[in-house]
C-alpha cells in the first residue's frame, strides 16, 4: 500500500532545542512519489539516479522517497490512497482516469505557483493544452516523453542476408512483406520464419494493423481503430480487413512463427534477436527492449510496409490527459515543485530517456543532439518519428467534457467489450474458416454503439457533449492539426 504525503511531518522527529539553544531546527521536507513507470525500477534506473542526486544536493532540507510498483498493484494502491484522502505528494494518475476528473474531484493542485516559466518553456510546442493537461488556464501535469510511435517495422538483417535478400532493403509494400517472409520461411526449413508477434498480449495487436494501414486511413496512435475524421470506428473498412487478410495469407504461407499466437513480448524480442524471425511490427519501445534482451542482434528499423508503398502518417498529441500530478493535500508543495523542476522533469532527466534508447524526449533541443544517441539505430528511429508523425485533433481540446465519455468507456479502445480486437484477430488467424469481414462488421457495430451509449448517458446528466465532439472532418493526416483548424470547425 502506498503511504501518503508527508503532511509536513518530515521524518516524524521533533527538533531538539538543546542542539541550538534558542533556535528551532528546520524540518526536513519528505516528498513521496509514486508510479509504475520503468524509469523508477531499480536503484540504477534514471529516475532513481537523479533522485539520489537531488537528495544529496538538498540533504537535511528535502528528502524524496520513491515508491515504484507494477501497474496492477499501483492502480489498486492509488485508489485506496484516494479513498483515504492520503495521496503521495506526487502521484501518477491511475489508469482509466484523466487529469480533468482528478482536478474536478479536488485531488490535484496546479503546478504553476511552484515551477518557473522557463521550466514550462523548455518543452516542445503543444506540450500544454487547455482541456488536456491544463484546466481553466492552470497546469496540472507535463509530458513524460516526446513523439511516441505506435508502429514501426523491425527487420533482422542477418536473417534477410542468410535468405539471399538485401539486408539494407526492407519491404515497403504488403506484397514485398509477404513475398520476403515466404522466401525466408522456405529457406529457414522450419527454424526461421518471416513474421513474429506477441499474441500473448492481444490488446496491443491493433497497433500492428494500425501500422499497416496508416497511408490509407486516418490514424491516431493512441486511438487504434478510431477514425477522427468521421467519429466512427473503422474496423470494418476495406483497409483494415485487407490488412487482416494479408496476415491470414502469410499464415497460410507458413510465414508466421507458430509460437506467435501465445508468446509474450519479451519472448518475441528474443526470437527476433536470436535470428529466428525476420520481421516484427511493434511500437517504439521494442527497440530498446531488443537491445536489452538480445544485445547482439543485427537489426534495422523502417516505416511499416503499406499496401501500395505510400508514405504513412500517424497522428499524435504531446499533451496528455494522464501523468504525474501534485497532490492537493501535500503540505510540501514548494519542495515538490523544486524536485519536479530540478530533477524529475529536468533536461538532465530527459537526457536519460534518450540515452536509454527508450523514447524521444519532450524537449526538441535534446532530441536533435546526436551526442546523446545510444547506438546507430537511434538516428533512424528519430528520423522515422520526424517523417511520419503529425499533430492530430484532440477531442479533449474541442470539448473537455468528452473526458466524462471516455470515463464511461474506460478507454476509446473499449476493452470492456469482449472479445477485444486483438483476440478477434488471433481467432481469425488460427481458424481459417472464420469470415474477417463479417466479424469486423459486428465488432465495429458494437464499438460504435458503445461510444454512442456513453455519449447519451453523459448527455442525460445535462452535460453538453455529442458525437460531433469526436469528429474532425477537416483533419489532413499529412499535416499538423493547429488551432486555426479547431477555429474553422466552430465557424
Automatic annotation (TrEMBL):
The name this protein goes by in its record: ABC transporter substrate-binding protein
PANTHER family the UniProt entry points to: ARABINOSE-BINDING PROTEIN-RELATED, DIACETYLCHITOBIOSE BINDING PROTEIN DASA
Signal peptide location: none
Any matching Pfam family: SBP_bac_1
UniProt-annotated stretches for the region Disordered: 1-25
Top-level taxon of origin: Bacteria
Alphabetical list of InterPro entries matching this protein: Bact_solute-bd_prot1, SBP
Amino acid at each position: 500500500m502506498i503511504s501518503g504525503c508527508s503532511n509536513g511531518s518530515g521524518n516524524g522527529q521533533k527538533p531538539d532545542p538543546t542542539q541550538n539553544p534558542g533556535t528551532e531546527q528546520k524540518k526536513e521536507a519528505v516528498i513521496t512519489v509514486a508510479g509504475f513507470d520503468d524509469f523508477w525500477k531499480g536503484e540504477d534506473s534514471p529516475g532513481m539516479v537523479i533522485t539520489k542526486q537531488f537528495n544529496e544536493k538538498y540533504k537535511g532540507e528535502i528528502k524524496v522517497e520513491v515508491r515504484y510498483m507494477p501497474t496492477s498493484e499501483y492502480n489498486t494502491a492509488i485508489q485506496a490512497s484516494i479513498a483515504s484522502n492520503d495521496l503521495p505528494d506526487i502521484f501518477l494518475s491511475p489508469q482509466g482516469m484523466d487529469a480533468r476528473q482528478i482536478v474536478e474531484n479536488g485531488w490535484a493542485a496546479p503546478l504553476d505557483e511552484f515551477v518557473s516559466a522557463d521550466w514550462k518553456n523548455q518543452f516542445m510546442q503543444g506540450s500544454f493544452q487547455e482541456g488536456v493537461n491544463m484546466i481553466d488556464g492552470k497546469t496540472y501535469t507535463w509530458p513524460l516523453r516526446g513523439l511516441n510511435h505506435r508502429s514501426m517495422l523491425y527487420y533482422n538483417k542477418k536473417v534477410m542476408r542468410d535468405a539471399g535478400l538485401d539486408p539494407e532493403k526492407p519491404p515497403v509494400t504488403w506484397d514485398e512483406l509477404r513475398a520476403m517472409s515466404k522466401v525466408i520461411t522456405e529457406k529457414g526449413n522450419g527454424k526461421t520464419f518471416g513474421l513474429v508477434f506477441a499474441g500473448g498480449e492481444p490488446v496491443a495487436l491493433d497497433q500492428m494493423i494500425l501500422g499497416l494501414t496508416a497511408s490509407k486511413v486516418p490514424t491516431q496512435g493512441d486511438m487504434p481503430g478510431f477514425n477522427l475524421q468521421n467519429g466512427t470506428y473503422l474496423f470494418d473498412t476495406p483497409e483494415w480487413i485487407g490488412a487482416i487478410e494479408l496476415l491470414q495469407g502469410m499464415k497460410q504461407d507458413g510465414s508466421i512463427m507458430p509460437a506467435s499466437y501465445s508468446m509474450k513480448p519479451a519472448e518475441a524480442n528474443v526470437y527476433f534477436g536470436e535470428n529466428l524471425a525476420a520481421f516484427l511490427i511493434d511500437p517504439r519501445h521494442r527497440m530498446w527492449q531488443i537491445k536489452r534482451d538480445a544485445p547482439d542482434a543485427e537489426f534495422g528499423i523502417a516505416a511499416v510496409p503499406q499496401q501500395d508503398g505510400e508514405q504513412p502518417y500517424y497522428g499524435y498529441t504531446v499533451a496528455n490527459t494522464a501523468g504525474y500530478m501534485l497532490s492537493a493535500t501535500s503540505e510540501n508543495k514548494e519542495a515538490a515543485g523544486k524536485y519536479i523542476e530540478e530533477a524529475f522533469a529536468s533536461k538532465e532527466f530527459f537526457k536519460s530517456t534518450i540515452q536509454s534508447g527508450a523514447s524521444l524526449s519532450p524537449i526538441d533541443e535534446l532530441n536533435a543532439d546526436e551526442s546523446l544517441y545510444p547506438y546507430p539505430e537511434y538516428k533512424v528511429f528519430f528520423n522515422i518519428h520526424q517523417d511520419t508523425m503529425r499533430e492530430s485533433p484532440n477531442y479533449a481540446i474541442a470539448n473537455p467534457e468528452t473526458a466524462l465519455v471516455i470515463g464511461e468507456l474506460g478507454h476509446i479502445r473499449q476493452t470492456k467489450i469482449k472479445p477485444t480486437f486483438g483476440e478477434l484477430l488471433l481467432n481469425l488467424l488460427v481458424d481459417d474458416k472464420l469470415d474477417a469481414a463479417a466479424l469486423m462488421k459486428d465488432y465495429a457495430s458494437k464499438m460504435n454503439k458503445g461510444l454512442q451509449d456513453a455519449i447519451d448517458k453523459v448527455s442525460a446528466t445535462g452535460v453538453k457533449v455529442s458525437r460531433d465532439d469526436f469528429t474532425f472532418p477537416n483533419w489532413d493526416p499529412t499535416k499538423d492539426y493547429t488551432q486555426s483548424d479547431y477555429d474553422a470547425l466552430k465557424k
